[in-house]
Design goal:
alpha+beta, 8-stranded antiparallel barrel, single chain, 9 strands
Length: 237
């Protein structure tokens, strides 16, 4: 009888420990499962292939507006760089010319000087001029300065039309005209055009009325009127 009770007690005790063991195991699995899930998620993330983000990919990415992308620099508006004819620009000029009075005399020569744009499309030009003069009687060589005002009244990015006027004077090796004097004034007025060859360089060409006389600083004062054509280069700096 006692042995039957002892066996029953041991059976009940074993069942209780089995239930407790199963409950403990279930609790342990429930605690470990989230950790396993997180570990599996981390492994999946690590195993994902790396994605390269290029400029083109970013430019096509949603939410990246075209206006947010950096624009290339505008070199034409770089500090210190002026367009042709802009106020404050200075150019160096080289010209060659030919003038004829359609009678008995002609001249040909070269000039070099500078232009200062004191306002947009308005320049003050200072230049040194020299001419070889062919005429009845002794020929002459003349040299002297001149001052001109030039207005680009129709100005575009690559070309312009302008009018200019000015005056200079020269001293010649022989009287010009032959019955005149060696010292003469050279008023002139004309029109021309400029054409861009680079951002800061242009070809200038035009025609002028050119007058030569001593302005009654000596007698006689015969004077001479000629049609002048010229062409040259202008370099901005």
């Amino acid at each position: 009888m006692r042995s039957s009770l002892s066996a029953r007690r041991r059976s009940d005790l074993g069942q209780r420990w089995s239930v407790r063991a199963i409950a403990a195991l279930t609790t342990t699995i429930g605690c470990v499962s989230p950790g396993l899930a997180a570990t599996e998620s981390l492994d999946a993330t690590i195993s994902m292939p790396m994605t390269r983000f290029t400029a083109s990919a970013l430019s096509l990415a949603p939410g990246v507006a075209a206006s947010d992308q950096a624009a290339p620099p505008d070199l034409s508006s770089a500090p210190g760089r002026k367009r042709f004819g802009e106020e404050g620009m200075v150019t160096f000029n080289i010209f060659g010319d030919y003038a004829n009075d359609f009678s008995s005399a002609w001249l040909a020569g070269g000039q070099f000087g500078i232009s200062w744009f004191f306002a947009d499309n308005l320049s003050l030009d200072v230049q040194l001029e020299q001419w070889g003069i062919s005429q009845d009687g002794p020929n002459a060589y003349a040299i002297g300065p001149a001052l001109l005002l030039r207005w680009h009244f129709l100005a575009y990015e690559t070309w312009s039309l302008y009018a200019d006027a000015g005056c200079g004077f020269f001293y010649a090796t022989n009287p010009v005209p032959t019955d005149g004097s060696r010292f003469n004034f050279t008023p002139r007025v004309g029109v021309g055009a400029s054409f861009a060859i680079t951002d800061t360089a242009r070809v200038l060409t035009g025609v002028r009325w050119l007058h030569i006389s001593n302005a009654n600083t000596s007698t006689p004062n015969p004077g001479r009127d000629s049609l002048e054509v010229y062409a040259g280069l202008s370099f901005g700096f």
